[in-house]
Amino acid sequence: MDVVDLARMQFAVTGGLHFLFVLLTLGLAPLVAIMHTRYAAGGNPLHERMTRFWGQIYVINYALGIFTGLVMEFQFGLNWSGLSHYAGDVFGAPLAIETLVAFFLESTFLGLWIFGWHRLPKALHVACIWLVTLTAYASAFWIMVANSFLQHPAGAVEQGGRLVLRDFGALLTNPSLVFALPHVISAGLWAGGFVVMGASAYHLFRRTPEREFFTRSLRLGVWTSFIGSLFTVGFGYAQFGVIESVQQGKFDGAVPGGALGLMITIGQLGQFAVMFVLLPLLIKNWIARWRWLHPVLMLIVPLPFVAAIAGWLVREVGRQPWLVYGRLSVADAMTPGLSKAAVTGSFAAFAGVLGLLALVDYLLIARAVRRGPGQVALGMPDRPADPAPVPAHSL
Amino acid sequence: MEIFWFGVLAALLLGYFALEGFDIGLGILLPVLGRSQDARDRLVGAMAPFVLAGEVWLVAVAGVLFGAFPSLEGEVLSGLYPLVVTLLLSWIVRDAGLWFRRRADGAIWRRVWDAAVCLGSTGLALTWGVILVALANGLSAPPLAGVAAGIVVALAFCLHGWTFAAWRLPGDPAVRGARRSGRALLLSACAAAAPAALALAAVGSGVVGYAAPPETLTTLGAIVLPCAPILIGAQIWVWRTFRRGALPTFF
């Protein structure tokens, strides 16, 4: 592999990992916010337990979203300084707004939500998780604005060998954005719904004492997957016309073509299965009572994630060899004079550390699911600030 | 407009050193001040609610660099390649320590992630020292000056972290019963931010020449400025909520 391939591979590995985790973040955030709202409004302890249990899954998953996101942000400057030199005056703006407005607030409010149990008034605490959700979706919006600019550099003209911003509104109404944004957000809901379904099915299958808790969760998971899958598929097909007009031949290569087939297969079959099989099974709670079905619900959890990665490959590999479509090639965007040793070393370090942490994170999510709502750390009582008395036989 | 955005960049970097410096300092001091698992849990519990609101200032620095000074962003980050990679790895290891240390039981699990917090924090402080020297010195750091600066930054962060612990846990055995006022914390924040201020002063006006064209800067300003009161308000809310009282246990 030459230097460009290595730098591309590094971006693909960190970006792919990042996508897996933020997808679930986007899907779970509104669900946790709804659960928390219902608890705050009605005071039902079951809703509090649901908020804490699913909120903890959400928060554990969130950690890896941050770690991989940090590498993503700095990687542009490390390996792709040609991009910031050529298109930074345009492409940098949505990224700057994403970090400065959306993520800055998301991180601040997330801290308030995680550590604010027993401390913030109930209404303000609920407001925090809604603000986290809102800013997470704002982040998704600005990142998709930036990505859509790479797909179709609208609103910019070349001047003196660099792109300059002419029409910011054209960035926000980019045809590559308008259907892709709801497509990816719905895919997040679908992924969130499948995770909630799979985890609930595990407890129902094991016949743990939390039957009511997981029956309700399972039903919520089915509804979320139904809405998510319906809009994912709808906004997926809606993109064909746009792609035909701005990126002809996008699916011609082996990778984008194959990934597109895989995504459509999973998407179409999955959407039919949710709509025509799982949704009717909500009647009389058959879905919670038919125990043989539960291993199936556990096994299909990875499907929306596989489809999402496939869709991301279609979009990004289908853009090759361009970084900014029709304007700047990937090879020209690489940092001038980047050495093979530097990329290899950073690739090994980032992939090794992030890969290991991602594995640990998934094991921790599985552990949190297995332990169930009885042992949730999120929202546990605080400990007094005064130190505990020192035991007499302290080692 | 260029000068305004340089001011924003400088404020965010100084804010990062002042608000994240004590987390990093406490992380370095974790094995020294927290001899027992209980003491380490108390120290981490004291700083935990401030970490997410503090580290995000550096994310914003990178964002402003990319949005308002794009060609500088590429030049600086790629010019400091191994340092930026080390900084990121240290940051991730420190964060992983904080997020994971209480997610499972077992003495070994806890020790491993507490060590990650200390190792990552130490890496962050030392790397920042070298980066600041390199920034002030045209993107190359003489080894001796770099190491010296790394130690200075680490010491300043440790002072800030210790002051924070004595302010948030007044009279606690972990800080040998010391008590520090809010004013002392403000002073130690200035000490933590001083190295960054020196580097910024050395770079100074050179940065302004790299600014994006006025069209980009105006657009950025039109969207970011109206949100500024919310950004600042949320930060103040964090400090008002968690400055006193019981210690959260999630991290």
UniProtKB/TrEMBL annotation, chain A:
Annotated InterPro entries: Cyt-d_ubiquinol_oxidase_su_1 (IPR002585)
Molecular function GO labels: electron transfer activity; heme binding; metal ion binding; oxidoreductase activity, acting on diphenols and related substances as donors, oxygen as acceptor
Recorded topology in the membrane: Multi-pass membrane protein
Transmembrane segments: 20-41, 53-72, 92-116, 123-145, 184-205, 217-240, 260-283, 295-314, 341-365
One example of a Gene Ontology biological process annotation: aerobic electron transport chain
Alphabetical keyword list: Cell membrane, Electron transport, Heme, Iron, Membrane, Metal-binding, Transmembrane, Transmembrane helix, Transport
Any Pfam family: Cyt_bd_oxida_I
Compartments in which it is found: Cell membrane
Transport recorded as keyword: yes
GO CC term, one of those recorded: plasma membrane
Taxonomic superkingdom: Bacteria
UniProt record similarity statement: Belongs to the cytochrome ubiquinol oxidase subunit 1 family.
Protein's name according to its UniProt entry: Cytochrome ubiquinol oxidase subunit I
Naturally occurring in which organism (per UniProt): Planotetraspora thailandica
Automatic annotation (TrEMBL), chain B:
Organism field: Planotetraspora thailandica
GO BP terms, alphabetized: aerobic electron transport chain
Bilayer disposition of the protein: Multi-pass membrane protein
Protein known as: Cytochrome BD ubiquinol oxidase subunit II
Family membership noted in the UniProt record: Belongs to the cytochrome ubiquinol oxidase subunit 2 family.
Superkingdom in the source lineage: Bacteria
Entry-linked InterPro entries: Cyt-d_oxidase_su2
Keyword ATP-binding: no
Molecular function per GO: electron transfer activity; oxidoreductase activity, acting on diphenols and related substances as donors, oxygen as acceptor
Subcellular location as annotated: Cell membrane
UniProt entry keywords in alphabetical sequence: Cell membrane, Membrane, Transmembrane, Transmembrane helix
Spans through the membrane: 6-32, 44-68, 80-100, 112-135, 141-164, 185-211, 217-239
Any single Pfam family the record assigns to this protein: Cyt_bd_oxida_II
GO cellular component, one term: cytochrome complex
Major place of residence: membrane
Lineage of the species this protein comes from: Bacteria, Bacillati, Actinomycetota, Actinomycetes, Streptosporangiales
